[in-house]
Design goal:
Structural class: alpha/beta
Number of domains: 1
Number of helices: 5
Oligomer: single chain
Shape: globular
CATH architecture: 3-Layer(aba) Sandwich
CATH class: Alpha Beta
CATH topology: Rossmann fold
């Protein structure tokens, strides 16, 4: 019970957190709205854009971000190539960093778009257990939902790292 109380009472301020917003492909621009919502909380965002996930190269300082929003145009035609690049270029590069990830996909009502269940299955997200990840479909409240979720989960990850001592491998 004491550890729960310590966890619940240790409420760090999200001020100073820095997130990456990566826009891939021809998707709705969500960055301006997320950035506006976050400014009042003292959170900074870095916007990066790429035509495809295959053409994007993560920089060395990528792991320094508290979380990542991947706003991607995923369709039936591109999902297999995206899966390969998602694991090779993102997951495996950041496997030792408990980084929060929000994946924003087009609304499933859009022609050629995938549902959340199809994205989870095709990208094998069930295997991704080392970080919090959530999928959001694009709608009028997406910016607020993504911002609130990524802040909440980032604070949780940082609290957990401070409360649980690191184990060393020998």
């Amino acid at each position: 019970m004491k550890s729960w109380f310590q966890f619940a009472s240790n409420r760090p301020d999200p001020t100073g957190m820095e997130f990456l917003y990566l826009r891939i492909g021809n998707v709705e621009k969500l960055f301006e709205e997320i950035n506006t919502i976050s400014k009042e909380k003292g959170i900074t965002w870095q916007l990066q854009e790429a035509e495809s996930f295959n053409g994007y190269h993560f920089s060395a300082n990528f792991v320094d971000f508290d979380g990542v929003v991947l706003n991607v145009a995923i369709s039936d035609d591109e999902i297999q190539e995206f899966r390969k690049n998602f694991w090779e270029k993102y997951v495996w590069k950041t496997e030792n960093k408990p980084q929060v990830t929000a994946l924003v996909i087009p609304n499933s009502n859009t022609l050629g778009s995938l549902t959340k269940a199809q994205v989870i299955e095709t990208l094998s997200l069930i295997r991704l257990t080392d970080r919090p990840i959530e999928i959001f479909e694009m709608n009028e409240n997406t910016a607020l939902e993504v911002t609130n979720w990524i802040i909440k989960m980032s604070i949780y990850v940082h609290r957990k790292l401070r409360i649980e001592p690191e184990t060393t491998k020998e």
